[in-house]
């Protein structure tokens, strides 16, 4: 009787799970296991918001396994030592898992596979998190891509991704189960109890992912190309945390959107725009895999000498608190603290202010997002921040500096987003809302807004700080 260990990681689903499908196809018994070993992820172990999501998603997965007559075995500690114990306890002949692509995990998984095979155990890994393996995409010169547009064209020439696989009819449960630790014993929930607010905003787990995808298909897909940049409108998919934690596979998302496009021609623009964003996710992982130094250092080495502001810490703190005096940025930072999420348009504006105007190192912003985003993904987070700083793949030119006031008026013209997250400014008329420091004193007084007390003045002057950023970047040219 063949027994296999199914090693769950960020693939917390039963549908379209290639490792699970392969295991139940060849084994009489499958032991689902999750091992908590954050120290093996180096400097980028999951942040607090992501750990909250992981806790809730594991609880959901355990319930779904139980409904199918199986169990989720939880352990913590060295992955190699835990697997060695489980192999001895269960008599399992091998371990199956789905691949991840972060640098520290690539090295860890490679070592685990070599060790298992050297010990005479079967070790198989599967493609589940990406539509295309990073090493399968190369330029005509055989080099990694650094620019998205040619990557997108090459991706399109590959044809449609494979169809997702259904949940197996049986999960091959064990008769005698090994010991499991409690979910609480893993210590995933943050010590600072700000996370209960997240539960009102999200439904982690495979069922939550399916509900979010269906909701987007029904309500957001048709107008996605128009609404994706408007933070006050429910016009985005909000699927990024489900994709990151593996409750939804990119193959499932691609197929469901493609099916809608085939059935309703009116959805073409919105659907194609969203599929393009899904391929941006692929591109980010491609870059991270090929350039593993980028979470800590610029892709382009010359940017390592950029002269960041030496006294940036107080300004960084104001940015983190949503107290910069730039309403669109402060609204985004408060949305982040409340929900573990920030609209992508606002992410770009907030990042630009930090690295271009405040001139704090992009890595400081990346680490704050890493700790507070429920969808904190090393590939996307790294690419986003290096794009904003101008030092990464497909980066914004050094002279592209978002004007927060212009962005605010363009994408939140009626101020609905700002008023939601900055209630102290809610009574200001639209013309004064986006730049209160420029408003007439009578308007501020009528709205009960005292600059410097109820709401701060800008922590840096936009024009002066923009000029300083351009001068600093010019030195590197």
UniProtKB/TrEMBL annotation:
Protein name in the entry: Deoxyribodipyrimidine photo-lyase
List the molecular function annotations (GO) for this entry: deoxyribodipyrimidine photo-lyase activity
Q: Where is the Photolyase/cryptochrome alpha/beta domain?
A: 2-131
Q: Is-annotated flag, keyword Ubl conjugation?
A: no
For region Disordered, the annotated ranges are: 157-176
- InterPro entries, A to Z: Crypto/Photolyase_FAD-like_sf, Crypto/Photolyase_N_sf, Cryptochr/Photolyase_FAD-bd, Cryptochrome/DNA_photolyase_1, DNA_photolyase_1_CS_C, DNA_photolyase_N, Rossmann-like_a/b/a_fold
- Which PANTHER family does the protein's record reference? CRYPTOCHROME, CRYPTOCHROME CIRCADIAN CLOCK 5 ISOFORM X1
The scientific name of the source species is: Natronospira bacteriovora
Its required cofactor(s), as named, are:
(6R)-5,10-methylene-5,6,7,8-tetrahydrofolate; FAD
Question: Which Enzyme Commission number(s) are on file for it?
Answer: 4.1.99.3
Q: Which UniProt keywords apply?
A: Chromophore, FAD, Flavoprotein, Lyase
Q: Is Cell membrane found in the keyword set?
A: no
For bias type Basic residues, the affected ranges are 157-169
Gene3D superfamilies for the chain: 1.25.40.80, DNA Cyclobutane Dipyrimidine Photolyase, subunit A, domain 3 (1.10.579.10), HUPs (3.40.50.620)
State the Pfam families in the record: DNA_photolyase (PF00875), FAD_binding_7 (PF03441)
Family, as annotated:
Belongs to the DNA photolyase family. Belongs to the DNA photolyase class-1 family.
